[in-house]
Write a structure and sequence with these properties.
The protein is an all-alpha fold and about 150 residues long. Helix content is about 60%, strand content about 0%.
């Protein structure tokens, strides 16, 4: 009885290729990046605001360089994931791009690391995105090729 409400296994949009025009991919990458940087900024407001509203600031310094850096890094991460997702099915490219960008923004605003460490965090985010894409690019075997599955 519940089979009619269950999603079809081939209709899984989570890991489907996303072809389309370039402007749609660029808009998607910019939107994911903007949302992630904004979420990182909002969730770290209690550490970067005035002392009379909460905890003293975690570290001195300007916020804008970190926000701009993570906007650029997030855009690169989202572009790598979306470019791969345009060709082959990639599982949850938006969540991966948003998560990496959010974590970097949140850590940078609360901690305010030096430029080499921000560069290392950027490299780690890009490597994680590249590994995620490499997992999607590896060849898949079907059940007929491997011999597994139920015999009729």
């Amino acid at each position: 009885m519940t089979e009619i409400f269950a999603p079809h296994p081939l209709d899984d949009d989570e890991a489907a290729a996303r072809p389309g025009p370039f402007w749609r991919h660029a808009l998607w990458a910019a939107g994911v990046t903007a949302a992630s940087v904004a979420a990182g900024w909002v969730t770290s407001l209690f550490r970067i605001g005035s002392e009379e509203y909460g905890l003293p600031p975690a570290a001195p310094g300007a916020l804008w360089p970190y926000l701009a850096a993570w906007a650029a890094i997030g855009l690169a991460v989202a572009a790598v994931l979306r470019a791969t997702a345009a060709k082959v099915p990639v599982y949850a490219p938006g969540r991966i791009a948003a998560g990496l960008t959010y974590l970097g923004t949140r850590l940078s605003l609360g901690w305010r690391p030096e430029a080499p460490l921000v560069g290392a965090m950027a490299a780690a985010a890009l490597i994680a995105a590249a590994v995620w894409c490499a997992l999607a690019l590896r060849p898949r075997r079907t059940r007929e090729e491997t011999g597994s599955g139920a015999e009729a």
